[in-house]
């Protein structure tokens, strides 16, 4: 099996340090997949914490939607070739 990431290398090292030659192939596979599952769960939890932190930083969740709509409008104007005229007080017409 080709090892592709640093996580896979760490799991292999941990597996070899824990079981060395005492475990059969099935036990090693179960242990390896359990560790991979924990890594995936950790990544999901990290992403959730980042989203919660971002919401706290921005405050009102509707601000996120407003920013997304503004970006969408900018993309639409860029593709149509016409940008809105910027008026006084940074408002667009």
Mean pLDDT across residues = 77
Radius of gyration: 25 Å
Helices and strands: which structural class?
mainly alpha
Shape: elongated
Strand content: under 5%
Q: Regions with pLDDT < 50 over 5+ consecutive residues?
A: none
What is the element string, with H for helices and E for strands? HHH
List keywords for this structure.
3 helices, 93 residues, mainly alpha, elongated, single chain
Q: What is the fold's blueprint, element by element?
A:
Elements: H1 6-19, H2 25-58, H3 61-80
Helix pairs in contact: 1-2
Describe this structure in a few short sentences.
By secondary structure, the chain is mainly α. Helix content is 73%, strand content 0%. The chain has helices spanning 6-19, 25-58, 61-80.
How does this model look, in words?
It contains 3 helices and no strands. By secondary structure, the chain is mainly α.
């Amino acid at each position: 099996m080709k090892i592709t990431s640093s996580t896979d290398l760490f799991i292999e090292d941990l597996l070899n340090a824990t079981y060395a030659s005492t475990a059969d192939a099935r036990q090693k596979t179960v242990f390896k997949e359990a560790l991979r599952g924990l890594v995936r769960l950790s990544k999901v939890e990290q992403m959730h914490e980042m989203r919660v932190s971002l919401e706290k930083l921005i405050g009102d969740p509707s601000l996120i939607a407003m920013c997304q709509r503004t970006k969408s409008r900018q993309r639409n104007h860029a593709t149509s070739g016409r940008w809105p005229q910027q008026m006084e007080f940074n408002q667009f017409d």
